[in-house]
Amino acid sequence: MEQTFIMIKPDGVQRGLVGEIIGRFEKKGFTLKGLKFITVDQSFAEKHYADLSTKPFFNGLVEYIISGPVVAMVWEGKNVVTTGRKIIGATNPADSAPGTIRGDYAIDIGRNVIHGSDAVESARKEIALWFPEGIAEWRSSLHSWIYE
Ligand code: DAT
Ligand code: MG
């Protein structure tokens, strides 16, 4: 089954949005497969955002991500990468629809509360980077109530 990497950024943690955000993915029916509370260092953050290293906002982005603990997660389910991005909302909260996480809880692009992988291939890379020890093998007993 498809997996995605979701991270609650330092502002989401500081603002007490952890439970709310996890609840949205849980209530949708996705399965939590990995979770850790972790503060990353500069070289790790630069690896995570390597694709953006030439952008003018890169240094500020890295500073923000290392500024406090984050909640790193793996969520699993049918189409979870695309649907996860829809639950999160557009990158700039000014454009994120109400009802999405960024639409409901963020204002500035550089404080947009949450990260989600943008493709199955980047999810695979991000899960390997953040969870080198591997993730839990389990299947929810609700499976047949969520999938036909
Ligand atoms: P997303 O997080 O929606 O996948 P992205 O991968 O293009 O967006 O960028 C990663 C983060 O970088 C994004 O969540 C916020 C920040 N960012 C993106 N574009 C920016 C910009 N034009 N100015 C400032 N920060 C930006
Ligand atoms: Mg991205």
From TrEMBL:
It comes from the Eukaryota. CDD domains: NDPk_I. Residues 1-137 form the Nucleoside diphosphate kinase-like domain. It is an enzyme of class 2 (transferase). ATP binds at residues 9, 57, 85, 91, 102, 112. Its cofactor is Mg(2+). Keywords: ATP-binding, Kinase, Nucleotide-binding, Transferase. Its EC number is 2.7.4.6. Major role in the synthesis of nucleoside triphosphates other than ATP. The ATP gamma phosphate is transferred to the NDP beta phosphate via a ping-pong mechanism, using a phosphorylated active-site intermediate. This is Nucleoside diphosphate kinase. It comes from Penstemon smallii.
